[in-house]
């Protein structure tokens, strides 16, 4: 198994919303393009295909397992302590791996257990056949789930553990009882949602931050969770920096993300974009440019359970305010 000293690459390949039909090839092509950090989750519904892509890449000699950083996530329905280990073992089976580099609690939201044989991944709605299908919650304290996560490290099933979508209050609480401290906090962050106080707190606790949706609205247009006019790539300060540095606006925004000290996990299936998203380490934004991009913050959160749970799953369940 890998050592605790292994470092998570700053740019990862995000696997959310990649179709089963294209996923194995997308993973293979990402590894071929130089990606060594893959961000997966049981809820994405494509871990079997991710595993096939990884296996093919390793079999073809593109990389070794110990050169890859592979993350997966514990879904909401598996928060009870007795369900945490079976959940990671299912992900490992699907991914064709012996261990993960990082396992994250996907949301600080506990839902009733759904057996693998009933439905997998379980998704958000408890009973899709109900007259009024809705999301339901379960009374599972987060500390119970975290203790079960710690046991996964001790069992050698994952090297590191962490959390997604935690706010500052939950992070303070977690650090008060964690025996194995979270290695990573994964949250939405982009120039419209800089989350500077949360980033500072994580840094003070020695927790690495991974920013998902680092390009903002682009991840949400197809879900009708964002409007085309909300693209940060059209902002004058981004376009001006792109012109000065002879880079694309997307590269400027991604560079801003890593220059803040975060890891980022952009998602694309287009080969030219795969290369473009990695090519952000041969230039640097000026302090003035960084400050100007910071100033675009308007606390615009695209991935907000307080909105989408009520709109899509008939249950009001905010976690951020």
Mean pLDDT: 93
| Share of residues in helices | 25-40%
Number of domains: 1
Give the overall shape.
globular
* CATH-defined superfamily: NADP-dependent oxidoreductase domain
Q: List unreliable stretches of 5+ residues.
A: none
Discrete helix count:
11
- H/E order of the elements? EHEHEHEHEHEHEHHEHHH
SSE class: alpha/beta
CATH topology: TIM Barrel
**Strand order within the widest sheet?**
1-2-3-4-5-6-7-8
Number of strands: 8
Radius of gyration: 19 Å
| Highest CATH level, the class | Alpha Beta
CATH architecture: Alpha-Beta Barrel
Task: Give a structural overview.
An 8-stranded parallel beta sheet has the order 1-2-3-4-5-6-7-8. The protein is of the alpha/beta class and 321 residues long. Helices cover 37% and strands 11% of the residues. It is globular, with a radius of gyration of 19 Å. It has one domain: NADP-dependent oxidoreductase domain (TIM Barrel, Alpha-Beta Barrel). It has 11 helices and 8 strands. Helix 5 links the parallel strand 5 and strand 6. Helix 1 packs parallel to helix 2, helix 2 packs across helix 3 and helix 3 crosses helix 4.
Please describe the topology of this protein:
Blueprint: E1 13-14, H1 20-33, E2 37-39, H2 47-59, E3 69-74, H3 81-95, E4 100-105, H4 142-154, E5 158-164, H5 168-177, E6 184-188, H6 196-204, E7 208-212, H7 236-245, H8 249-259, E8 263-264, H9 271-278, H10 287-294, H11 305-313
Parallel strand pairs: 1-2, 2-3, 3-4, 4-5, 5-6, 6-7, 7-8
Helix pairs in contact: 1-2, 2-3, 3-4, 7-8
């Amino acid at each position: 198994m890998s050592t605790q000293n292994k470092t998570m690459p700053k740019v990862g390949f995000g696997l959310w919303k990649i179709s089963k039909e294209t996923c194995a090839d997308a993973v293979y092509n990402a590894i071929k393009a130089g990606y060594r950090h893959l961000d997966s989750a049981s809820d994405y519904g494509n871990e079997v295909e991710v595993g096939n892509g990884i296996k093919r890449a390793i079999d073809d000699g593109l990389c070794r397992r110990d050169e890859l950083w592979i993350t997966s996530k514990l879904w909401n329905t598996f928060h009870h302590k007795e369900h945490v280990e079976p959940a990671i073992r299912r992900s490992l089976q699907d991914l064709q791996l012996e261990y993960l580099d990082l396992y994250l609690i996907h949301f600080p939201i506990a839902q009733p257990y759904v057996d693998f044989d009933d439905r997998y991944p379980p998704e958000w709605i408890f009973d899709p056949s109900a007259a009024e299908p809705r999301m339901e919650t379960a009374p599972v304290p987060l500390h119970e789930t975290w203790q079960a996560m710690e046991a996964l490290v001790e069992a050698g099933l994952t090297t590191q553990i962490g959390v997604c979508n935690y706010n500052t209050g939950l992070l303070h609480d977690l650090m008060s009882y964690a025996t194995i401290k979270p290695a990573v906090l994964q949250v939405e962050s982009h120039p419209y949602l800089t989350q500077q106080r949360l980033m500072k707190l994580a840094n003070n606790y020695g927790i690495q931050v991974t920013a998902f949706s680092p390009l903002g609205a682009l991840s949400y247009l197809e879900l009708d969770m964002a409007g085309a006019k909300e693209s940060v790539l059209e902002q004058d300060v981004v376009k001006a920096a792109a012109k000065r540095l002879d880079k694309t606006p997307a590269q400027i925004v991604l560079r801003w993300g890593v220059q803040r000290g975060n890891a980022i996990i952009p998602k694309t299936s287009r080969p030219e974009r795969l290369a473009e998203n990695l090519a952000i380490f041969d230039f640097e934004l000026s302090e003035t440019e960084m400050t100007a991009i910071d100033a675009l913050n308007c606390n615009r959160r695209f991935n907000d359970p307080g909105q989408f749970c009520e709109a899509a799953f008939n249950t009001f369940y905010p976690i951020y305010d």
